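Because discrete structure vocabularies remain unfamiliar, we reproduce here a specimen of the format, pairing a chain with its fold in token form:
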Amino acid sequence: MPALCGLDLEHPVMNAAGTCKSLDDVAELARSATAAVVVGSITVAARAGNAGASYHSGDGYSLNALGLPNRGLGYYREHLPEMARRAHAAGKPLVLSVAGFSVEDYAVAATAAAPTGVDLLEVNLACPNVWDGGSQKRIACFDLRQTAAICAAVDDAMRAIPSAVPYGVKISPFSDPEALASLAEVLGKLAAGSEDGPRYVCTSNTFPNALAFDHAGREVIGAGLAGLAGPALRPVALGQVRQLRRLLPDTVDIVGAGGVTTGRDVADFLRAGATAVQVSTAYWNRGEDPAVFGEIAADWAEHCSDA
């Protein structure tokens, strides 16, 4: 039985952040075969998300520019206890993804979420194509100082409350191996020798600033630029999992994300060094059908038995 940060999982397949935002979403996923329920990403203030089309399914890829739509911290502070109860009643951990526009945002969200019954926090350092105040938001994981400051703020917040929960971070794809190694060094130092620091790394979020046109020459995403995901991202994500497994201490788990569609994909991510995987494109391409998680998990189990 796989485990993530000491939490037992029935199998390694779970939903990715962005696919579950409400209590109704949690209830539906709790009834599905996903191994954990991942909620979010959430922000301190409610967000409507980006205007216009925010998702496009292409030939072997997907694009999304959701813009972090969510109901804000007030809603989640109220409803997370029931979300946790629903997930736990189904034998699943509840993971909450938090995002922010400042270091303080992350600390505030973590402080509010920790006492609600969530089992893990996922600190989103990688959401691309988010606009705030008329400009595109910086992707935090590409800024080592910002990454360290956010993690330190979350650590401080967890130390200040009796109901601290472990957290991980979600990062973007890196094309520069030296930059990835530098980030891994920062994360590894934060996690070394204590209960502080990220206990897992989820890789990868979408590849930022992709663009596609329809047959009429119109941009397929309302915001124009979008994050590239789906099968086209899978080899990049696999490579990043392999690099991070070699760079990070063994005490830091890795969750693979990027184009997981079949049981073979799950097996490849585990072979590369991941503990578990997250799925979003396959879910959206099936019309948000939660049965996809069970189908991928069953296919993985069959692949393992045939290997």
